[in-house]
Design brief:
The complex is a heterotrimer of chains A (348), B (361) and C (294).
Chain A: H1 2-18, E1 26-31, H2 34-52, E2 55-60, H3 64-73, E3 80-84, H4 85-93, E4 97-98, E5 115-116, E6 119-132, H5 133-136, H6 144-148, E7 157-160, H7 167-173, H8 181-185, H9 188-201, E8 205-209, H10 212-220, E9 226-230, H11 231-239, E10 244-261, H12 267-277, H13 280-283, H14 286-289, E11 293-294, H15 307-312, H16 317-320, E12 324-325, H17 328-347
Chain B: E1 7-16, E2 19-29, E3 34-38, H1 45-53, E4 60-65, E5 68-69, E6 80-83, H2 95-105, H3 110-123, H4 139-151, E7 157-161, H5 169-186, E8 189-194, H6 197-203, E9 206-211, E10 214-219, H7 221-226, H8 231-236, E11 241-244, E12 246-248, E13 251-254, E14 257-258, E15 270-274, E16 279-282, E17 290-302, E18 306-313, E19 318-324, H9 327-331, E20 339-345, E21 350-353
Helix pairs in contact in B: 2-3, 2-4, 3-4
Chain C: H1 7-46, H2 58-65, H3 67-100, H4 103-114, H5 121-132, H6 137-144, H7 158-182, H8 186-194, H9 199-227, H10 231-236, H11 244-255, H12 258-293
Helix pairs in contact in C: 1-12, 2-3, 2-12, 3-7, 3-9, 5-7, 7-9, 8-9, 9-12, 11-12
The chains are: A alpha/beta (348), B alpha+beta (361), C mainly alpha (294).
């Protein structure tokens, strides 16, 4: 791979400046920063640090792309990284994340489809449909077919500017049952069918959103009447006084996971830390700080999460049952092609 | 065909804050005349020119070109040619483009423009330079192009704002003669602004001396030089030493000596004007045509074409006399410290009224 | 010749001086090489490798196969051209006005133009969102005052993008324009009017051509800066204005596809150079036209 050699030479130069040394009982975790990492720090990092008697250093980073650069440069400053499931899947495929030892990490009570060979889920979130309660009151759309129905629900829509989490709703709106979505999507025709459905919606799309902060703001400001988006972000907008609601109905289940980069300074300790963080007692604290669901369902039995809060979380059994888990296999296979096709459709 | 128009300037006033740039100026410029506005910088001469061109709006007054009142006419409708101090040749046009510009604006046919531009070029002796860019021209050439542009549309009046000030002395002297010749050929009423008194005397039919926004004297160069109307004019034009004189029984007396005077003796206090070149060294007091002033030579300076002798009179007044460098005069040169008799011919003995018109304003 | 007095020593001094000059400018030359020549060369090199790391032109052919690439380039140029045009329409009269003011007043005017420079681009862009969106200030007031009854689509589209970009680019147009207008001697316009040009003709025949160098400089700067814009179209375009930089971001961030991203960069660079070359030719053409047409 000549290209990697080239990147390597450039990145090595950087490594000379930024590389450092690590002691044996210390791990460095890189996550997304902001309110999300704060919640992780309080619920996971600090307590685990105490329990294991080690030091956990925190950094924020920009995702799997950065891991890739660091690995290529042969200088990885992080032992554990928090990544989206898509990033985790790419990391596995590219072998820049090492396989996890599932004899150490107990995932027997995890929500289905929230782990990969080298990335284990930590929180569950959902891609859902939200509506403006000023426009529709409590009677918002309950299915993607509703979301697509501009006569039943006149108003402006915001949908994602990338195909991730967009093709599945489109097929469901087109009448494909949730459990058949990925088999239909598993061909160019299937993808085109989904894209055609989105073409139908295009005249009503006011905004193609590009970040979680954006779709939350759009709903909060009443800039659009309907939007797809991530439940945690909508909860923030609701907490901020936005007039909106969302439903888990036909939502997509997705998760963030922890992985260990190849060449991490302290992989063995990192494995223990991940095992510890995957336990229900820690995970149960996450929803106290941010409305994401624990991947470990035992967390709901610790008594730490009250009924009302539990009922609102995406990994709660009542909600999880309505969600379609994202298929990492499908993304690994079609992501590139479908992305190009999606951009074609957007720019038409 | 009328080639020129007279200009009537009446009671023109222009103030900037408390400063009078023009203070009730009255001036009649004759048709076809070459009139120079002369004054030190800040005297108001350029302001007056700008009023004529229409770039400066006066506070009050009247300006007529012939019978036409133009005081409210915008510059582009005045039909006067103008040569700017920095020439203001358009750098994005060629020489021909510049000269043809006023014709283009007047809707002249293309062929006709070409012909007239060529003609104007040959008038200013720049034949064949029409395609040159402005930045390829020398200072003198730019000057001629500016002139050609100002006259090509045959205006009745031509205004020039210190057009020669950027040229070196030799070229300036040459252009003075050439401008004068061109004026004679075109017969166009010309108002010329300069602070160079020599230039004014060389070129003009009449010179209007301006100071502190006021017109002080307007006369032919000879009159201005020989009979300045005020100490300011006497000092500003040529060199002169003014010596206050006394009155006694209707006579004019200096150092106890009754002066033989040319022309009328003005009322009130006045001074004798001594111009260096008008003084001569006399061998004795016998010539009755001369007023004689005894003195002592302080210094003799050789200046090439002439020499200057500095002397102090008995009254203690310092004067200078200029003679041309010529065998005879050089031979009669006194040396330093020698007593000398300085003579002034009575016809050149002129008294200047001490008006208070040049009190600094 | 060698025997001429001090000739050899003087020649040596000259050489030494030249060498010293070269030595002094060497760090700058190295820096330019390191931060401009090397990265651009590297970019080009990377663009020649496909996903498998094999030397190929697939990164370039892909741009012709996929419709979206052409559209993205068209959008990029359209947005850049429109931004430039609006910048000209706003900056020209404004700069002209400033150039006719006394210098002190003009400085205050310039300061107000530069003021936005002190706030971050992101903040300004989001501020425009607040002003322009469906329930933003403009629409609320417009509806309140009865000027229109349905919210105007001012944000999340080309309109919003242009407003934001013009606002950000304005100083880059005003500054060179103002400088070149200030440099125009007032006597040129006076001369034109003396020669019979009414104010309109004096402006178009003399002032405007003389201000062209500043205008073209401003246009080139604005246009080229626009080509690489990212934040403003991303925030104010609502996903409907996809420019090359945004595509590059997706390619690298999502797919780590340096090859295609580099190819996009190279094509954009070549197109930009082509535009600059054209502008240069136009500039000279203009000069010729100005002379012949006069």
């Amino acid at each position: 791979m000549r290209i990697n050699q080239l990147l390597l030479s450039g990145a090595t130069a950087c490594a000379i400046f930024f590389g450092g040394t690590v002691s044996a009982d210390e791990v460095t975790i890189a996550s997304w920063g902001g309110s999300y990492q704060e919640a992780q720090s309080k619920a996971l990092f600090k307590p685990v640090e105490k329990a294991l008697g080690i030091t956990i250093k925190e950094e924020s980073y920009k995702g799997i792309g950065q891991v890739r650069t660091k690995v290529a440069a042969g200088s990885v400053p992080w032992d554990i990284i928090d990544t989206g499931s898509g990033g985790g899947a790419r990391g596995c495929a590219e072998e820049i994340l090492i396989p996890l030892d599932y004899s150490m990490i107990d995932t027997s009570n995890f929500v289905a489809d929230t782990q990969l060979s080298c990335c284990v889920g930590t929180i569950v979130f959902a891609t859902v449909m939200a509506w403006n309660t000023d426009t529709y009151g409590d009677n918002g759309p309950q299915s993607w077919a509703d979301f697509w129905d501009a006569e039943k629900f006149p108003g402006t829509r915001a949908i994602r500017g990338k195909m991730h989490g967009m093709l599945e709703p489109a097929l469901m709106a087109d009448g494909v049952p949730a459990d058949e979505v990925y088999s239909v999507l598993d061909s160019e025709e299937g993808i085109n069918r989904a894209l055609d459905k989105i073409r139908e919606l295009k005249p009503h799309v006011a905004v193609w959103w590009s970040s979680g902060a954006q779709h939350a703001q759009l709903m909060k400001d009443g800039e659009v009447d309907l939007s797809t988006g991530w439940n945690g972000r909508f909860d923030v907008a609701i907490a901020d006084g936005g007039n909106l609601k969302y439903t888990y109905s036909q939502g997509l289940q997705d998760y963030d996971c922890f992985g260990i980069p190849k060449g991490a300074p302290n992989p063995d300790l990192a494995m223990s830390v991940i095992a510890e963080m995957s336990k229900a007692e820690y995970q149960a604290d996450i929803p106290q700080y941010i409305t994401y669901g624990p991947t470990n369902t035992l967390a709901y039995e610790t008594g730490k999460i009250d009924e009302t809060l539990a009922a609102s979380l995406p990994s709660h059994p009542d909600n999880a049952s309505q969600l379609l888990p994202i298929s990492q296999e499908w993304y690994a296979k079609w992501e590139k092609m479908a992305s190009e096709m999606y951009t074609d459709m957007m720019t038409e | 065909m009328i080639k020129a128009l007279p200009i009537h300037i009446q009671q023109v006033v222009k103030t900037y804050g408390r400063i009078h740039a023009l203070d009730h100026v009255d001036l009649e410029i004759k048709s076809g005349e070459f009139l120079t506005l002369l004054g030190p910088s800040g005297s108001g001469k350029t302001t007056l020119l700008m009023v004529l061109a229409g770039f400066t709006r006066p506070d009050s007054g009247s300006v007529r070109f012939g019978d036409r009142e133009v005081i409210r006419t915008p510059p582009h409708k005045r039909d006067v040619g103008m040569v700017f101090q920095n020439y203001a040749l358009f750098p994005h046009m060629t020489v021909a483009g510049n000269i043809g510009f006023p014709l283009r604006l007047r809707g002249v046919q293309k062929d006709d423009i070409h012909q007239r531009v060529e003609h104007a070029l040959s008038t200013v002796q720049l034949d064949g330079l029409g395609d040159r860019r402005i930045d390829q021209l020398s200072g003198g050439q730019k000057q001629r192009v500016a002139l050609a542009r100002a006259i090509v549309f045959e205006p009745r009046i031509l205004l020039m704002d210190e057009p020669l000030s950027a040229l070196d002395k030799k070229l300036r002297d040459h252009m003075q003669i050439e401008l004068r010749r061109l004026h004679e050929k075109l017969g166009i009423t010309t108002v010329y602004v300069t602070h160079d008194q020599r230039e004014a005397l060389t070129m003009s039919d009449r010179v209007a001396v301006i100071n502190h926004g006021r017109l002080i004297q307007c006369d032919s160069p000879r009159t201005i030089y020989d009979y300045p109307a005020s100490p300011f004019v006497a000092n500003f034009i040529g060199e002169s030493t003014l010596i206050p004189v006394k009155r006694s029984n209707g006579n004019v007396v200096l150092d106890g000596q009754v002066l033989k005077v040319s022309g009328a003796v003005p009322d009130g206090r006045c001074s004798l004007m001594l111009r260096p070149e008008r003084l001569t060294i006399l061998p004795d007091r016998r010539n009755p045509d001369y007023n004689v002033f005894p003195g002592v030579v302080e210094e003799v300076v050789f200046q090439g074409e002439s020499f200057v002798a500095y002397a102090v009179l008995e009254s203690g007044t310092h004067v200078s006399m200029r003679g041309i460098s010529q065998r005879e005069t050089v031979a009669s040169l006194p040396s330093r410290g020698k007593a000398v008799l300085l003579g002034l011919h009575w016809e050149e003995t002129v008294l200047i009224p001490e008006a208070n018109e040049d009190a600094p304003g | 010749m060698a025997d001429a007095l001090n000739a050899r020593e003087l020649r040596q001094d000259e050489w030494r001086e030249k060498l010293a000059m070269f030595g002094l400018s060497l760090p700058a030359l190295v820096l330019v090489f390191a931060i401009i020549v090397v990265p651009v060369g590297w970019l080009f090199w990377l663009s020649l490798f496909n996903d498998e790391g094999v030397l190929s032109l697939s990164n370039y052919t892909r741009m012709f196969d996929s419709k979206s690439y052409t559209r993205i380039f068209i959008t990029t140029f359209k947005v850049s051209i429109l931004t430039t045009v609006f910048c000209v329409l706003i900056s020209y009269p404004f700069s002209y006005f400033l150039s006719q003011l006394p210098k002190r007043w003009a400085a205050i005017g310039l300061f107000t133009v530069l003021l936005p420079f002190w706030t971050s681009l992101l903040v300004r862009t989001y501020a425009w969102l607040v002003v322009l969106q469906r329930k933003g200030l403009v629409n609320e007031w417009g509806i309140e005052l009865g000027l229109w009854d349905q919210p105007l689509k001012l944000a999340h589209n080309l309109n919003g993008t242009l407003v934001g970009m013009v606002h950000i680019m304005l100083p880059f147009m005003v500054l060179p324009l103002y400088a070149s207008m200030r440099a125009i001697n007032a006597d040129y316009v006076k001369a034109a009017s003396n020669l019979g040009a009414n104010p309109t003709r004096a402006f178009w025949l003399v002032f405007f051509p003389l201000s062209l160098p500043g205008l073209l400089a401003g246009m080139v700067v604005v246009f080229v800066l626009c080509l690489g814009f990212f934040v403003t179209p991303a925030v104010l375009g609502g996903g409907k204005v996809i420019m090359v930089s945004m595509k590059i971001e997706t390619l690298i961030d999502l797919f780590f596809n340096f090859g295609t991203a580099s190819a996009l960069g190279v094509v954009l660079m070549i197109l930009t150079l082509a535009v600059l070359f054209l502008a240069h030719r136009l500039l000279r053409l203009d000069k010729i036209l100005g002379e012949r047409g006069a």
